[in-house]
Structures are given as structure tokens and as C-alpha cells.
Amino acid sequence: MTFKVFIDSDIILDVLAKREPFYEPAALLFSLIEKGKLAGYTSPVIFSNIYYVLHKRVSKKITTESLRYLKTLIQILPLDNRAIELALDSEFNDFEDAIQYFCAEQNSINYIITRNKIDYKKAKINILTAKEFLAMLKTISNN
Hints:
Blueprint: E1 3-7, H1 9-16, H2 23-34, E2 38-42, H3 44-57, H4 60-73, E3 75-76, H5 81-89, H6 95-106, E4 111-113, E5 126-128, H7 130-142
Parallel strand pairs: 1-2, 1-4, 2-3, 4-5
Helix pairs in contact: 1-2, 1-3, 2-7, 3-4, 5-6
């Protein structure tokens, strides 16, 4: 069984910008995706956010190359009118997180991996940090 995981922008930026102390668990998560042990997904909004943040740190060329490589690892899910409507009608405090959540939910994603768990209090999808998700996988593989 392959786990389907929605990767939030903070986790992707932890890898691309090598942000400590979060880099190692995020890199391990992406290693599992690269090896085909996990299926990674994100949204167009996150791609846009990553471009914006990363381009402030590095050149446009490096930013573009990083996103092209990222696109080979994870799939970009479609974002439609229904996800936006659900986000607008939701009780999420952060509209962007609401969009991500409903995008993941509409695409039958099992887990959202983020460092921003607080904004997903009423989620029906499992919300975990990269470190928590890796610990869960380790527990499963030990049983």
C-alpha cells in the first residue's frame, strides 16, 4: 500500500532551502517519495508560494530548476471551483490552508504533511509533521 501524502509549502521549503532543524525529516520524506514508497502531491497554490519565497533567497534560474525537479517528484493536483467554495464556506482561520485541505480531500489524500498543524483543527484528514509521519511509518513497519 502506498500512502498518498499532500505536502505543504513549509515542508517543501525545508528541503529546498535546507532549513534547520526541519531539513532532515523533510528530506527523508522526499527520499521516500523519490524511491516510490510514498505518493507525493501538492497544489498549484503551493507551487506559486514556493516560487515566491525561494526566489527571494536564490536566483530565478535556481528557483526554476528547483521547481522543475520538484515537479518530477510530486504531482500537482487540480484546484477547482468546488475546493474554493468549500474553503470560503469553511471555519478555517487561514483561507490558504482551507484551499489546500479541500484540494487534498477532493483527491482522496490520506495525509497532509505540514508544520502548521494548528490551522487544521477540524480536519478529517490526518495532519502530521514530517517527523510524526516518519515515526508512524517506522511503527507500521516494525509491526
